[in-house]
C-alpha cells in the first residue's frame, strides 16, 4: 500500500490550497499541513512553494504528484479486483472538484433498487483536463464511470456516453464587480472585457468561443487548466471566467451569473467502450431511471 500522506499532497497540488485540500479529504487544515510537512521532512523533498495566495508544486513536487497518481490508481484497481473476487461488484465513480458527479450520486438510490447486488464506490481523481491525467482515456482501469461534459477534440472515440442533462453557461465575476449584482448576463454585457475560457473544455464551449470571438469588443483568453490558480490570476487582472454547472462558484471570491446565449452544455455519464458486465448493468439501470 502507498503512503496515505500522498493523498494530501495530490489534493493540494490539484486545488492550489491546503485548506481546500483539507476540505476535500474531510480533515482539518492543520492536520493536512502536518501530513505534507512531515512527508517533506522525512523524505527530504520540498513539494510546494507557499505563497499568500496558496501553494503550487515545485519541480520535485510535480514529479512526485505525477508518480503518486499512478500509484494511487494501481492501489485502487487492486482493491477493486479483490472486492469483486470476494463477491461484491462495485462500480467506481470518478469524482473531482470540477466533476463531482452529484447527479449520478443523487440517482444512485433509484439505480440500486434495479441492481441491488451492485455497490457504488466514489473514487477521487485528478483534473480531467490535465494532460497528465489518464482517467478519460483509461476508463475501466482506475475508475469505471465519470459524470462530465464532453470534448470531441480531447476524448473523441475513447469512451461511450449516456446523456444525463444539460446546464446553461455562467460567467464567474469578482464579487466586487458591478456585474455581480446582475441575475443574468448577455454576450453584449461582455464587451470591453477579457474572458477566460478552458480550451476545448467541451463541444459547447468551443461553440461559445466562436460566438465570443466574433463579437466586437470581447477578448477571449484560452487557458489550459481549470483550477484555483486560474481564478486567482483572473482576480488580479479583473477578468471574467466562463463556467457551467459544478464549475460555477467554486472560488469564494467569484460569483457565477447565468449567461443568456442560447447555448447549453450537455452532461454525460462517460463509461468504457467495452464495459465490464456489471458496469453495463449499472449504465442500463441509470438510463432506465432517467427516462422521461
The assigned structural class equals alpha/beta
Q: Count the helices. How many? A: 9
Helix content: 25-40%
Residue stretches low in confidence (pLDDT < 50, at least 5 long) are none
The ordered string of helix (H) and strand (E) elements is HHHEEHEHEEHEEEHEHEEEH
Principal-axis shape: globular
Distance between the termini: 45 Å
The appropriate CATH architecture of the domain at 167-266 is 3-Layer(aba) Sandwich
In short:
Helix content is 39%, strand content 26%.
Describe what this molecule looks like in 3D.
It is a single chain. By secondary structure, the chain is of the alpha/beta class. Among the domains are: 1-87, Orthogonal Bundle (Arc Repressor Mutant, subunit A), CATH 1.10.10; 167-266, 3-Layer(aba) Sandwich (D-Maltodextrin-Binding Protein, domain 2), CATH 3.40.190. It is built from nine helices and twelve strands. It has helices spanning 5-15, 18-25, 29-43, 59-85, 102-114, 152-155, 203-213, 228-237, 277-290, and strands at residues 48-51, 54-57, 89-95, 118-124, 145-148, 160-174, 184-186, 193-198, 218-223, 240-244, 254-260, 264-271. Strands 3, 4, 5, 6, 7, 8, 9, 10, 11 and 12 form a ten-stranded mixed sheet that branches. A two-stranded antiparallel ribbon has the order 1-2. α1 packs across α3. The relative contact order is 0.14.
List keywords for this structure.
10-stranded mixed β-sheet; two-stranded antiparallel sheet; alpha/beta; transcription regulation; single chain; Arc Repressor Mutant, subunit A; D-Maltodextrin-Binding Protein, domain 2; 12 strands; WH-like_DNA-bd_sf; 292 residues; 9 helices
